[in-house]
Design brief:
Length: about 160
């Protein structure tokens, strides 16, 4: 890979040809002026440029993880899908315990597998309620959990 210009977005500076999905990586720490710290994690489900998740499954898994994660932690700020469809970003406030984050993700994905419905999967609470797949989200969760031992191996 040729030398590329350093960009403002952390993930644009990550060599996507070198990572080995699935993994959970601390992508950045942002310090607020009042002392709070936001920890952003890269939850990579699929190998970049080799595989991707379909949109209905991504969407449903986002709803499920966003709702279910808050059953375990009041530190979750946001869970957002990546535009490249290979993973999500998990942002937490004032929680730098990587092992606890791994455990949180594991518990949430286990809850996804047994979920009976996708939360807020309707036109009142969702901007594209027709684009959901509970089964697809559950398969993504199963696939990620099947490789749990590999989550800490980014490269």
């Amino acid at each position: 890979m040729s030398e590329l210009e350093k960009l403002n977005v952390e993930s644009f500076n990550l060599d996507h040809t070198k990572v080995k999905a699935p993994y959970v990586r601390l992508a950045s720490v942002t310090k607020g002026e009042n002392g709070d710290e936001i920890y952003k994690y890269d939850l990579r489900f699929k190998q970049p440029n080799k595989a991707h998740m379909d949109m209905p499954s991504i969407h449903s898994l986002e709803h499920l993880m966003a709702e279910l994660s808050r059953n375990y932690s009041d530190k979750v700020v946001d869970i957002s899908p990546m535009g490249c469809q290979t993973g999500y970003y998990l942002s937490v406030i004032n929680d730098d315990d990587y092992e606890a984050i791994l455990h949180l993700i594991e518990k949430v994905l286990k809850d996804v597998i047994v979920a009976k419905e996708v939360p807020a999967c309707n036109e009142v609470q969702c901007g594209w309620a027709a684009s959901h797949s509970l089964e697809g989200a559950q398969q993504l969760a199963k696939d990620m959990l099947a490789k749990r031992e590999e989550w800490t191996e980014v490269f």
